[in-house]
Amino acid sequence: MHHSINSDGNDLVEVFVEEPYEEPEIVHEADPGAPTISVLKEPDPEPQLDPDLLTALGETVDDSPQYGPHIHTNLAQRWQPILKKGLPKETKEKLLKTYLIPENCTLLQAPKINAEISAAVLDVVRNRDKKIEAAQQQLGAGITAINKGLTILLTSEDKVTATKHLSDACRILSDLHYMETQTRAKLVTPALSKQFLNVIQDCERDETLFGAKLPEKIKASKAIEKQGLQIKKIVKSTTGTSSAPTAPRAGYQGNWTAPSRYPSSRGGEEARGEQHRRRRAGRPPCRSRGRRARANHVQCSTKQGAGTRCTRGLPWVLQCSPARVLAARRAGRLSGIDDGFAFQKHSPTVQRNNIGSNAYVKRLLKGAYKLRPSLPKYSHTWDPQRLLDYIADWYPNTSLTVEKITKKLVILLALCTAHRVQTLSLIKINKVSIGPTGVKIIITDIIKTSAAGRSQPILFLPYFREKPNICPATVLRDYIALTRDIRPENALNLLLTVKRPFKCATAQTIGRWIKQVMAESGVDVAAFGAHSTRHASTSAAAAAGVSVDTIRKTASWTNNSQAFAKFYHRQIIDEGSFARAVCHISNDINLSLE
Q: Where do the domains of the chain lie, and which CATH numbers do they carry?
């Protein structure tokens, strides 16, 4: 641009001012077939808020961890390995023995649990309390080490010794920090799958519990598992169905089998194939269509006429002619029972209603008796005094755990009432009446011996003043008092399980408790079960002179029942009594040797 300026009014000075170069705008014609490109515009900057508004909104919360200033490098290098892997066992024990709790500050000692509380809680609770107590004791040792260092700094100028005590305190507390980290990991891992546990087994902590590289390890584990499946050899199963035709079924070798479950009209080709196989096996085709048609000697009102005896459902040898049965016998297709049926039908001297006198049937039943003779389960029983002497040491009752007092009560109930474990599991706590002479229990639920017109059993447990350690009434009273705080509101039964969550004990659980105590007392549980307490108690009562009527009434048998005489009244055998009598050794000496 050219300007003319008159500087002094006479001369003209020409000044050239260079203007910025502007490129000419090129206008492109829009191609109707070209795609349209949309250009995103940057959003307009947000206006700044007024400081008063920011104050009214409140402060922002930073979720990133905030750390303090750096500590000395030598200190960090010593604590980091302990925080990751903990102290060696020998070093840790040495430090804990060095720094004992000071006498003027005994509350640094971890408090012990009271003996009464320890006896009332479960073993799981006691074990958990021991772990917390050990961690608390280690915390007290660390605080003691810090105070030793501070005491030296306050009373002298020995910085080296004070530094050593402070360093030991940091070691103890860092190891405690590591232990708490391991505890958190153990609380989390039970909810994880086994495959995932193998991945996190060797993970080391950092800012996270299982390390920041955990996602990479999971991906690598899945990749390895996928590659392993790809290179694994696939073995074809030989037990599957084969397309090869099966061999034809051999001739019939066993007893006559029941007809097909479904009539021949069902199943199409499959049903017709079954009929064909039955014909090839030498048996008549199945035409029965119901349980009534399979009954022996029913009166059939079919096309044959009313009153005709129907042979459907009978053994096939009873439906065949003598010639056919003889041919099957020669071919070896008859079993012992089939041959017996054939002999019964075709022999004129044996009637069908006298099948028990058939020689083949008699031989079969005699062989079955030799293989499994019908003998009583117990030929003798055990002495219940052995079991009572064992649980007599569980005294006083108030100092027992819930498990021990429960087992003691179950044993005394089984022996003193002679009832089944089913009855014991149905005792209701609101049906227990505690009186001055004993405890009365009314059974209201249906049990095995319940019947129409028969009264329900009433159990009575007297007080044993001379033997309070095995008094069933006292144990029952103490059991109710001990389980009052742990009993659920909806638990109506007397006996509860011994582990959380507490609930009503079943008959199977009660039987297992009885067998456990029997095994601990020396009773052979391989030969005697939990129900044998009914045999032992009633047999002991009969040996002591109790009348049979009293035994029947106590055990809830009827007045005319022969169950006690046939199955329960057994001789109480003192094992080894014969040998001791021969060798002139008294029973008291033998017991003292044991």
A: 73-198 (no CATH), 293-371 (no CATH), 380-587 (1.10.443.10)
